[in-house]
Amino acid sequence: MITLASYYETFFKLGRAVLEMLGSIYQVPVEPADLEELRTNMLSMPAHEDVPEGVCLLREAGFRLMTLTNSPPDKDGSPLERAGLAHFFERQFRVDSVRRFKPAPEPYHLVTELLKVAPPAICLIAARTWDTLGAQSVGFSAGLVTRTGNAPLPIHGLPQPQVVATDLVRLARQMIAL
Question: Rounded to two decimals, what is the model's pTM?
Answer without folding.
Answer: 0.89
